[in-house]
Amino acid sequence: MISLPFLLTALVVVLIPGTGVIYTVAIGLGRGRRASLWAALGCTFGIVPALVAATLGLAAVMHTSALAYHALRWAGVAYLLYLAWQALRSGGALRVDPDQGSEPGWRTALRGVLINALNPKLSIFFLALLPPFLSGDPTAASREMLVLGAVFMVLTFIVFAGYGVMAAVARDRVLSSPRALRWLSRGIAALFAGLAGKLAVERA
């Protein structure tokens, strides 16, 4: 069940920069190492709803229900656009700024949870990724899905934390350049806006 092919496949998937990685890196640049670990933790726990949906078969139901799928999709689009705005506005949560104040870790983590929880593609992704690695025993399928999902979550946290720590290490150099600060904030905003656009035009 937990085989080398599964671990390699999961690691490759997690290493590919996506919305969660961009968020964690932005937090690392803007708020430092500790905050980036909270961001990574939030993105990791944001996987739970999609994993449970895939395990219980709810992902397939949602995939066939246009209303449920599109409602979740447009909520995700709106949230990504909100994050883009947060990267641009003065004092925004994702703005890279030397005067950026601190915030409770749970709030940083909550944004990470919402990033993944509002992505309807994630449950469909698990429905496609995990079954090929199951043992084939129908009575153990749900348990094995949850175990594989838990391993995927551990890899997610480790990789995202690594991205965040590297961003935090680069933070001092970035903060010393006002021009870099402006372009980084604009770049983060553009990335989130682009991801929102991509999610908006994707088909179920």
What does this protein look like?
This protein is mostly helical. It has one domain. Helix content is 78%, strand content 0%. Helix 1 packs parallel to helix 9 and helix 3 runs antiparallel to helix 9. The protein is globular. The chain starts with a helix and ends with a helix.
Mean pLDDT: 86
Derived structural class = mainly alpha
Low-confidence stretches: none
Largest β-sheet summary: none
Order of helices and strands: HHHHHHHHHH
The fraction of residues in strands falls at under 5%
What would you say about this model in short?
With 204 residues, this protein is mostly helical.
Task: List the SSEs and their pairings.
Blueprint: H1 4-15, H2 19-31, H3 33-45, H4 48-56, H5 58-64, H6 66-88, H7 105-117, H8 120-129, H9 141-175, H10 178-201
Helix pairs in contact: 1-9, 2-3, 2-7, 2-9, 2-10, 3-7, 3-9, 4-8, 4-9, 5-8, 6-10
